[in-house]
Amino acid sequence: MPRTLEGQITMEKTPSYFITKEAPRRVFSMSRHTKLIVVVRDPVTRAVSDYTQTLTKSPGLPSFQNLAFRNATTGLIDTTWSAVRIGIYAKHLENWLRFFPLSRLLFVSGERLVTDPAGEMGRVQDFLGLKRVVTDKHFYFNQTKGFPCLKKPEGSSRPRCLGKSKGRPHPQIPSEVLHRLRDFYRPFNLKFYQMTGHNFGWD
């Protein structure tokens, strides 16, 4: 990481940190004072979204249910499939709490980032000890994509919206498959709510 002067904050974003076993130790070795921001969303929706993104790159991919279940008859979920494994947030958090106190982590709701981006960004700014500069006036909702966009910065001709990979339609997944997956995640979600002291309302 680059050297940070007094009054500066250096940020870096890598989605795989949260689920990588070696990451907490490495980050702690670099700086035990690091603040960590984790964006989480309903693990079922996240798994379908993950599958959708992979499907665009590999159209010959097996069906979602073929990948999600080890045994479709018994409903045994395949936790070795990354799209499923990533959503077991409580397991990943346990790894981070071995090195960092909960006060060093902020969990941002992916759902609220869509419905109330300014509110969630307010929490982020508070967590980082920043003045609340980003507010409602900085966002507008893009009906086509179904996501909020940042209004154009001064000197720029266009607003900042999420890229083409975001907001694409998901394939139809049988409701029975989604129910089974929801049942699978429920105990992990409840544990995650207890660990973070925050109910994300995924059930």
Automatic annotation (TrEMBL):
Name of the molecule in the record: Sulfotransferase
SUPFAM superfamilies tied to this protein: P-loop containing nucleoside triphosphate hydrolases
Top EC class of this enzyme: transferase
InterPro entries hit by this protein: NST/OST, P-loop_NTPase, Sulfotransferase_dom
Aminoacyl-tRNA synthetase among keywords: no
Molecular function GO terms recorded: [heparan sulfate]-glucosamine 3-sulfotransferase activity
Gene3D superfamilies according to UniProt: P-loop containing nucleotide triphosphate hydrolases (3.40.50.300)
Family of this protein: Belongs to the sulfotransferase 1 family.
Positions that bind 3'-phosphoadenylyl sulfate: R41, S49, K166, G167, R168, P169, H170
Enzyme Commission numbers on file: 2.8.2.-
Cystine crosslinks: C149-C161
Alphabetically ordered keywords of this record: Disulfide bond, Glycoprotein, Transferase
Domain Sulfotransferase stretches: 30-186
Domain of life: Eukaryota
